[in-house]
Specification:
Layout: H1 4-16, H2 21-33, H3 35-60
Helix pairs in contact: 1-2, 1-3, 2-3
């Protein structure tokens, strides 16, 4: 079983690179049972989308 430290590291790495199938599977299992890490993952995705949106708006100016 993956612990929270490993899961948050994996979530962060997943924002920068494609995770391997085994990594995705282990992370998803952990996120199913851990509210803290699930929220961390959601926040990371939100920040990623916000940054991309801001960059796109700046490029369109």
């Amino acid at each position: 079983m993956m612990n929270c430290k490993e899961a948050t590291r994996m979530v962060s790495e997943g924002l920068d690179r494609e995770l391997a199938l085994g990594e995705k599977f282990r992370l998803r299992l952990h996120l199913l049972i851990c509210d803290y890490c699930r929220n961390f993952s959601r926040q990371g995705e939100f920040l990623r989308r916000a940054a991309r949106s801001a960059a796109k708006r700046k490029a369109d100016d």
